Amino acid sequence: AQKYTGIVEDCCCNYETANLLNEEVLYPSLQELVKTPFFRYFKVKLWCDCPFWPDDGMCKLRDCSVCECPDNEFPELFKRPFRRGLPSDAPICQEGKPEAAVDRTLDHRAFRGWTVTDNPWTNDDETNNDEMTYVNLQLNPERYTGYTGPSARRIWDAVYSENCPKYPSEELCQEERLLYKLISGLHSSISIHIAADYLLDEDTNSWGENLTLMYDRVLRYPERVRNLYFTYLFVLRAVTKTATYLEQAEYNTGNPTEDLKAHSLIRQLLYNPKLQAACPLPFDEAKLWKGQRGPELKQKTQEQFRNISALMDCVGCEKCRLWGKLQVLGLGTALKILFSQNGEDKIVQTLQLQRNEVIALINLLNRLSESVKFVHEKGAAVERIMERQSGLFPFASILLQKVWPFSSSLLS
Fold it and tell me: Whole-angstrom Cα distance, residue 285 to residue 292?
C-alpha cells in the first residue's frame, strides 16, 4: 500500500485523495448513473472491416455471433435497415463461447436534442447511422470472453509499437508521455475487468475473480497501476471541466422519472462539495502544448490516437469490439474536451458533444472508477498472497482463483 502515495505523476491530486473521493463520491454516483436509460444505450458500428490487415479474429462472419432482436422492439427513432441475422434459436458461432456475443435487446426509448458532429480525435464516423446500432450496455458487461491468442495480441502490439511506443520517461516531455500513459492506464483497467469477472470453470459456468491473472497483468507492475490512476484523473478532469455543458444538456429518453434521475445524478457528481474542495483540478491541461513544438506534438498525438481508434475495427470478438470502441471514444472525448478548447470561459459556448460521446465518457469514467476501487481495496492483499505463495506449490494459483468470492471485455 505504501507504493502508491503522494501526487500522481503529471496530475494535481494525490493517491490518498483520489481513493477517498472515488469511494465516497465518484463510485456510488457513477454506479447509479450508468444504469439510467440515457447512459445504458450506446450507438456502435459492430460490423467493421479492419483497415490494416485481413479479418482473422475469433468470428469471421459478420452476423454469426449475435441474434438480431425483432424489429418491433426498437423505438421508431432507432430503426434502420438491418442485415439478415441468425434466427433466435441458431447456435452462436464464436468458437462455442456465447459470452463473446452481444445481447442487443432494447426497450422503447428515444433520444433528442443533441448535436451531430464527428470527433476529430477518433476514427469512427459517428454521424453514419446506417452502419450503427444501439446496444444496451447493462446486458453486455465488460468481462472475460475467451478472446485470446495472436489476433488479440496483434491489436495491443499495433497500439503500442506503432502509435504510442514507450521510451524512458527522462527522455520525454510531458506531452510525449501523455498518450502512452493514457493507453497503459486504459489497458490496465481492461485487464482488471477481465480478471474480476472471469470464467473459472466452463463446465459449471462458474464465474469469479481470477486474482492470479490480475496480479500477472497489472498488480505486479507498479507503473501500470500508476498509469491507471493517471488515466482516471485525466478523464475526471474532462468531466469536471465541462460541468456547465453537461448540466445544461438534455437527458431525454421518453421516461421522465429516469431522465430526471440522470440529470440529478449528473449535478450531484459535478458539483459535489467534497470533490470541489479536495481535488478541484485533477489534471492541469493548460501546461501542455505550450513550447515551440507544442502544435506539432499535439497534431502528432491526435493522429496517433485516431489510428488507435481505427484499430478497434480489427478486434475479432464482437463484445470486445463494443467495449473497445466505447472506451476509446470516451478517451477521445476527454481529449477533445481538454485540448480542443482554450479556457473555461469559452468551453460552454464553443464545445459540441454528441450524445454518444457523453455516454462513452461517463461509462469510461465508471470503468476506471471500478478499477481504482478494486486496486485500492484488494491490490495490496492480492500482492501479499501472490508473493507468499510464489514457489510454494504448483497449484496455488488455481486454488487462489476460487478462494475469493464472486465480485470480461476487450483484449487479452
Answer: 17
Q: Is the whole-model pTM more than 0.85?
A: no
Active site residue 317: yes
Helix H segments across 5-98? Answer: 15-21, 27-33, 37-40
Helix pair angle (355-389, 396-403), 10° resolution: 130
* Under 8 Å between Cβ of 42 and 134: yes
pLDDT in tens, the chain (412 residues): 467 999 999 999 999 999 999 999 999 999 999 999 899 988 888 877 777 766 554 443 233 333 333 444 434 444 433 333 333 333 333 334 455 666 555 443 334 456 666 677 887 665 566 667 888 888 888 888 887 777 778 888 888 988 877 766 666 788 889 999 999 999 999 999 999 999 888 788 888 999 999 999 999 999 999 999 999 999 999 999 999 889 988 888 888 899 999 999 999 999 999 999 999 999 999 999 888 888 899 999 999 999 999 999 888 888 888 999 999 999 999 999 999 755 444 554 577 888 899 999 999 999 999 999 999 999 888 888 888 877 554 444 444 444 433 233 444 3
Helices (H), 197-270: 211-214, 222-241, 243-248, 256-270
Catalytic site residue from 11, 59, 67, 317 = 317
Collapsing DSSP to helix, strand or coil, 134 comes out as strand
Say which of 13, 59, 164, 320 is annotated catalytic. 320
Instruction: Identify the DSSP state of 94.
Output: S
- Residues making up the annotated binding site for FAD are 143, 145, 156, 184, 187, 217
